[in-house]
Design a protein that fits this description.
With about 140 residues, the protein is mainly α. It has a single domain (about 5-130), classed as Non-ribosomal Peptide Synthetase Peptidyl Carrier Protein, Chain A, CATH 1.10.1200. The protein is built from four helices and two strands, in the order ααββαα. Strands 1-2 form a two-stranded antiparallel ribbon. α2 (about 15-50) crosses α3 (about 75-110). The chain is elongated.
């Protein structure tokens, strides 16, 4: 088996495709959450604590000198990223919780035994007749 055919067999497996779709959707979801946190959640929080814009919070470690840029520790962006992560993790947790609940309800639903086909009924009757002793 050539390397190309092995790669083709690997790439078209369901798990790989599912994983790729999940990564793409996850990246898009991450952008939505980042926008939600940065544009919806953080402004009111900043307003509540005195009009602070978290993304602008930073400490200048070294001032700019000539062509060399300033060295800045942007801890506000880190705070924003941590909040993004917490919101994404909570959203994923809630999604998994709902899916698990649906699976439990599905598993708990009683399943009726399958109705035997007419052929099975006939065969069962024949078997039962063969088991009973015949009076001669």
């Amino acid at each position: 088996m050539s390397v190309l055919s092995e790669f083709k067999a690997f790439a078209v497996k369901g798990n790989v495709v599912d994983m790729a779709v999940g990564i793409i959707i996850g990246a898009a979801f991450g952008k939505i959450v980042s926008s939600f946190v940065g544009d919806v959640v953080m402004p009111p929080i900043g307003l509540l604590i005195g009009g602070v814009d978290f993304s602008q919070l930073a400490i200048s470690l070294k001032a700019a000198e000539g062509d060399a840029p300033a060295v800045v520790l942007s801890y506000g962006k880190f705070i924003q990223t941590v909040l993004d992560f917490i919101i994404v993790a909570f959203a994923i947790f809630m999604g998994v919780k709902v899916i698990n609940k649906l699976k439990r309800e599905e598993a708990a639903a009683p399943t009726l035994p399958p109705v035997p086909t007419p052929e099975e009924v006939l065969l069962t009757e024949i078997r039962d007749l063969l088991k009973t002793p015949q009076n001669k």
